[in-house]
């Protein structure tokens, strides 16, 4: 992917996929799903108040109490609590699960002396869902070891509210369902109101952005914008990236828990980068290009070369020393040249990841610019994820490649602060602001009408 022409081709392919995903009749067969989020605006800086946030995406979930302070343009976490979900509950009934969540939320409210208040809640639910409205989201299927009965095909907001009402000792206000990528964008959007793209490059990868509603054919309306959750990890699932897949990518895909799915994600995200490097090192050793043609039990074991090793080996000052320690820990007989070659392999794989990611991000930035009929776009990307945060060169490489592919876009990168917590609260705050604005417009309309009649 050193070739700019190849990266431009990838960008053109993704552009076609974005349009297919937005189409009313083509979205069901699109590799890039382009899911409407019903988030219709980014923060404007006037949001304020107290909010709750619930973040459920694994064996633990978090409850947060968040204050949005307009004067300081800050989202302040007042307090939070982590609750665990026992294994038997992950496999039990949906009612048990949501009763447990409602109980933990109730205990948290009591500890904060908030039980008498009815606070709005942002709900980050990191499982595949089809969102119908900001407060209505249908679980498509469980992942991550969950298989609670009676939840798939149901509205998870309704199930949460029912569990709270069964208790009867507290209530919550309006609920906004939030995808973690959207939360990333929104948590940055309060600090920088030109933030209209969210991106995560960590264990997995995804992006969202503000699209013109008239282009979102599955949602009625012509005016305004809506945040679209691209689910760009699925780019290439229809074979459109076949020409850039290596034999190592194909092995990673075939040995994964979901072969044929999330092609793009498997080329660029933290869950897979270490394994791609491991397979490359094995091949080079077998071809007698490394380690005097010898391998080790550890190197031949899937998952043993962790993605964090790539970051450690590419550290500017201590990288070679780190490489030597890691190769020794993997039971390999190395010499100084081997350590340098391993570093080069790591750099090649992480650079490819950054450039692929840049091609996708440039596609979205260029789309926003063209949508708005602008010669030049100035925008901000809210970004999160361990690969972006912790790899020593990734962010720099990504930004340099985006500048080449989107020369008419001036893009600032802002690292998110707790997108799934504070960002979820921010989504709720913006939804409330819009609702209040609509009520005021309606009241003004009524008042004007009544005045005319009098």
Automatic annotation (TrEMBL):
EC number: 2.7.1.-
Entry-linked InterPro entries: ATPase_NBD (IPR043129), Hexokinase (IPR001312), Hexokinase_BS (IPR019807), Hexokinase_C (IPR022673), Hexokinase_N (IPR022672)
This protein's GO CC annotations: cytosol; mitochondrion
Coiled-coil parts of chain: none
Ranges where the Hexokinase C-terminal domain occurs: 196-430
Keywords: ATP-binding, Glycolysis, Kinase, Nucleotide-binding, Transferase
Pathway listed: Carbohydrate metabolism; hexose metabolism; Carbohydrate degradation; glycolysis; D-glyceraldehyde 3-phosphate and glycerone phosphate from D-glucose: step 1/4
Domain Hexokinase N-terminal: 5-190
GO annotation, biological process: glucose metabolic process; glycolytic process; intracellular glucose homeostasis
Annotated GO MF terms: ATP binding; D-glucose binding; fructokinase activity; glucokinase activity
Family per record: Belongs to the hexokinase family.
UniProt name for this protein: Phosphotransferase
Species: Amphiprion ocellaris (Clown anemonefish)
């Amino acid at each position: 992917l050193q070739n700019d022409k190849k990266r431009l081709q990838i960008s053109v392919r993704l552009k076609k996929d974005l349009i297919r995903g937005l189409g009313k009749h083509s979205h069901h067969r699109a590799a890039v799903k382009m899911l409407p989020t019903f988030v219709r605006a980014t923060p404007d800086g006037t949001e304020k108040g107290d909010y709750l946030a619930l973040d459920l995406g694994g064996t633990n979930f978090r409850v947060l109490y968040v204050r949005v302070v307009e004067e300081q343009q800050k989202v302040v976490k007042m307090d939070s609590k982590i609750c665990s979900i026992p294994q038997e509950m992950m496999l039990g009934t949906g009612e048990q699960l949501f009763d447990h969540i409602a109980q933990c939320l109730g205990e948290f409210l009591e500890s904060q002396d908030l039980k008498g208040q009815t606070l709005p809640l942002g709900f980050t639910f990191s499982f595949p869902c089809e969102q119908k409205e900001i407060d209505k989201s249908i679980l498509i299927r469980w992942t991550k070891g969950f298989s609670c009965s009676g939840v798939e095909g149901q509205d998870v907001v309704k199930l949460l509210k029912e569990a709270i009402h069964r208790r009867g000792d507290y209530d919550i206000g309006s609920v906004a369902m939030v995808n973690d990528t959207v939360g990333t964008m929104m948590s940055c959007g309060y600090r920088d109101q030109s933030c209209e793209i969210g991106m995560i490059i960590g264990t997995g990868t995804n992006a969202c952005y503000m699209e013109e509603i008239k282009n979102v054919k599955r949602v009625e309306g012509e005016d305004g914008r809506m945040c679209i959750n691209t689910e760009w990890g699925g780019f290439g699932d229809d074979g459109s990236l076949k020409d850039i897949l290596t034999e190592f990518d194909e092995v990673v895909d075939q040995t994964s828990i979901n072969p044929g799915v999330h092609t793009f994600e498997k080329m660029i995200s933290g869950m897979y980068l270490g394994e791609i490097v491991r397979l490359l090192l094995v091949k080079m050793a077998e071809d007698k290009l490394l380690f005097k043609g010898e391998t080790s039990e550890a190197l031949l074991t899937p998952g043993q070369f962790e993605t964090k090793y790539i970051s450690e080996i590419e550290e500017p000052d201590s990288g070679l020393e780190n490489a030597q320690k890691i190769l020794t820990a993997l039971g390999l007989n190395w010499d100084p040249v081997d350590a340098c070659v391993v570093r080069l392999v790591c750099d090649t794989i992480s650079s490819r990841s950054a450039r692929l990611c840049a091609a996708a991000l440039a596609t979205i930035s260029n789309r926003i610019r063209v949508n708005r009929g602008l010669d030049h776009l100035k925008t901000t990307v809210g970004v999160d994820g361990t690969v972006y945060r912790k790899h020593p060169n990734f962010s720099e490489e990504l930004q340099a490649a985006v500048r080449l592919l989107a020369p008419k876009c001036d893009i600032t990168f802002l690292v998110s602060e707790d997108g799934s917590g504070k960002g979820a609260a921010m989504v709720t705050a913006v939804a409330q602001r819009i609702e209040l604005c609509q009520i005021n417009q309606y009241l003004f309309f009524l008042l004007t009408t009544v005045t005319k009649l009098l």
